[in-house]
Write a structure and sequence with these properties.
heterodimer, A: mainly beta, 6-stranded mixed sheet, 11 strands, 0% helix, B: mainly beta, 4-stranded antiparallel sheet, globular
């Protein structure tokens, strides 16, 4: 079993839709949770990070963590064609000095006009 | 501009011919890391470095070497490349006291024939 599971998609939605991207993780020792966005032929860029359970909002993006069920989500409101990318969830175990990010496989999102 | 620079962007080589992928960051980050990205497997850590002359193995270190002689540079060395090392490689760096996220380079697409 992978430590972080993520549905690879692809996910195709119309412009303006609310998008829900999800990951599950297996180890309750995981502390930080992050979402990265990766455009084609580019490196991943950090979108959001959170430490605790609950919601964190940044503009049209909301990250949600439920540590009791080991479930993390990213919601995108009013999705735009420019949101079309691969979204990677990642977590950081406490051990190892936060050096090691463990990534999900990524979900490819396409937002069509 | 704060960035991680990798070279080359694309490389095709033959089995057994030693190669080096360079990585340089201008953010004075202490932590640096190499990842490979493969379809369905996501990003997997190859090696990481917590500071000059301090390196350690990640999840998939076999067939790779690294060195950290200067803070800004973290080259990845393939002494005898094999076809199973055909992949997309990313170098990344982070500030240990920052938000926790890595800043990634634009990637190196390596093909070993």
């Amino acid at each position: 079993q992978k430590e972080v599971e993520q549905d690879p998609g692809p996910l195709s939605v119309p412009e303006g839709a609310i998008v829900s991207l999800n990951c599950t993780y297996s180890n309750s020792a995981f502390q930080y949770f992050m979402w990265y966005r990766q455009y084609s032929r580019k490196g991943p860029e950090l979108l959001m990070y959170t430490y605790s359970s609950g919601n964190k909002e940044d503009g049209r993006f909301t990250a949600q963590v439920d540590k009791s069920s080991k479930y993390i989500s990213l919601f995108i409101r009013d999705s735009q064609p420019s949101d079309s990318a691969t979204y990677l969830c990642a977590t950081v175990p406490f051990s190892g000095g936060y050096n090691k990010l463990i990534f999900g496989a990524g979900t490819r999102l396409a937002v069509h006009p | 501009e704060a960035q991680v620079t990798q070279n080359p962007r694309y490389l095709i080589t033959v089995t057994g011919k030693k190669l080096t992928v360079t990585c340089s960051q201008n953010m004075n980050h202490e932590y640096m890391s190499w990842y490979r990205q493969d379809p369905g497997l996501g990003l997997r850590q190859i090696y990481y470095s917590m500071n000059v002359e301090v390196t350690d193995k990640g999840d998939v270190p076999e067939g790779y070497k690294v060195s950290r002689k200067e803070k800004r540079n973290f080259p990845l060395i393939l002494e005898s490349p094999s076809p199973n090392q055909t992949s997309l490689y990313f170098c990344a760096s982070r500030d240990p006291f920052g938000s926790g996220g890595y800043t990634f380079g634009s990637g190196t697409r390596l093909t070993v024939v």
